[in-house]
Amino acid sequence: MRRPRPGLFPLLYLICLAPPSLVVWFTLLLTTPGMSAGDRILEIPEGSSATSVVDSLHAAGVLRHRLPARVYLALSREGGRIHAGEYRFGPRDSTVGVIRRLVAGDVYQRPVTIPEGARAEEVVEALVAAGIGEAGPLRAAVSDPAPVRDLDPAAADLEGYLFPDTYQFPRGTPPAEIFGAMVRRFREAWGQVAAAGCAPRGLDVREAVILASLIEKETGRDEERPVVSAVFHNRLRIGMPLQCDPTVIYGLQRRGTYGGRLTRSDLTSPTPYNT
After folding, report:
1. In this structure, are 193 and 116 located in the same domain?
2. Are the CB atoms for 75 and 56 separated by under 8 Å?
3. pTM of the full predicted structure?
4. 83, 74, 73, 87: which is closest to 103 by C-alpha?
5. Whole-angstrom Cα distance, residue 139 to residue 143?
6. Which terminal residue of the chain, N or C, has fewer Cβ atoms less than 10 Å from its own Cβ?
7. pLDDT at 21
8. Claim to verify: residue 39 and residue 97 sit in the same structural domain
9. Any alpha helices (H) in the chain, and if so which ranges?
10. CA distance 123 to 138
């Protein structure tokens, strides 16, 4: 059995002897919202003491008073259960609500939207811009094709398998976990397509992903995509070059020589992607 901490019994004794009005006052302090006018995002470092956390919350305007928080943490013994991480607090959050969130580890989930047709580098840039991770580790993780090896043995990276959607990740989420979530969404979507009998005939997953990307890049209008798809399928059937400009752009981007506009000489540029 754990021994009570020194100083706790005197505090409990004083509270028990306190007049009802004092108890009501203290309860109001615990349930009163902070003094910030808007949302506050605060990072709680690993190993922070309860006192330093309360001081940081008060300095940021999340807590109106420090004493109620300190007393509550002492009585509840939750000071040592606070989780490190990034938190977002609103102006209506009470002292008790703030502490419970810290103890539960309810960290702030940063939203990031991955648009359709985004290249791997663009996905990395979106994650960096959202403050979720750093470019170096993200690039290293997205360059590892291991998560899709069973789908595409020839994959050189995860490009094409990062499903476009809006995601939410805490700051500092491991890159492998981030891209793992995107690949899982791709698998779910591909499974639904296959189950519905809509998977392209005669194409494996890799070929279907590439063709879908080309159709998507060829036109930004949804109503035109069935026509583009039919044209590309017919050209593939008769062995005709696709003559898809986005493949030229992609090859130049991979080589780092794309200047923003295609030239006549670019169309005959010998890259592995030029169709």
Report:
1. yes
2. no
3. 0.76
4. 83
5. 6
6. N
7. 61
8. yes
9. 8-17, 20-31, 50-59, 67-76, 95-104, 120-129, 135-142, 175-195, 205-218, 225-238, 245-255
10. 9
From 145, 176, 199, the end of a domain falls on 199
Q: How confident is the model at residue 2 (pLDDT cuts 50, 70, 90)?
A: very low
Provide the β-strand partners of residue 44: 85
Q: CA 190, 194, 195, 197: dihedral to nearest 10 degrees? A: 140
Beta-carbon count within 10 A of 89 CB: 24
- Spatial distance between the Cα atoms of 23 and 240, rounded to a whole number of angstroms: 83
Give the domain range for residue 155: 110-199
Q: What is the CATH number of the domain that holds 44?
A: 3.30.1490.480
Contacts of 108 (CB under 8 A, 6+ apart): 41, 85, 86, 87, 88, 170, 171
Same-domain check for residues 25 and 83: yes
Query: Tell me, what DSSP letter sits at residue 256?
Result: T
| Residue 36 bridge partners (DSSP) | none
Same domain, 117 and 171: yes
Based on the fold, state whether residues 135 and 47 are members of the same structural domain: no
Alpha-carbon torsion 130, 211, 251, 155, what sign? positive
Higher pLDDT, 217 or 198: 217
Residues 100 and 12 in one domain: yes
pLDDT tens digits, one per residue of 157-169: 999 999 999 999 9
Mark whether 114 and 177 lie in a shared domain. Answer: yes
Domain boundary among 151, 171, 199: 199
Q: Which two structure tokens, joined as six digits, stand for 111?
A: 């939203």
What is the identity of the amino acid at 114? Answer: I
Q: Give how many domains the chain has, as a whole number.
A: 2
Same domain, 80 and 32: yes
